[in-house]
């Protein structure tokens, strides 16, 4: 089932939301050092994610150096944090603390989509969290199309119309090479 998450205004993480997010945080720092304040950095990420298209340099000073927060975000993405968090969000029942920050998580996953690549995109599509997609689904690559094509009954002599349809599906599965900024920013 695919759905859009209703927009919510950004608020700092509550204690219950922070407690729900902590199990998904990986150990990120090199040489065993602890991250200074991961809660404040996640707050910064969620705050900036609520502002469509805002660059890291627009982060308010109270969150510290924007480059540090951006590096933390990249490390989270490469460590699979957003993948795990989306899986946890999909399993969370209504009223779970993760549901309170669902919109912020989806918005942050939009930013992570470029770094997370097709595995993150496939996960978002499989879970049906359309709010986490950076554009309308029909403009994005569809890594799950191979599963759909595998179910097609093709014999040794497929009709030309079938082959043309498959070619069209293949082109559509690749998504658009460039998605206009106006579409990305207008997508909920």
TrEMBL record:
Pfam family for this entry, one: DUF4096
The Insertion element IS402-like domain, residue ranges: 13-85
Protein name from the UniProt record: Transposase
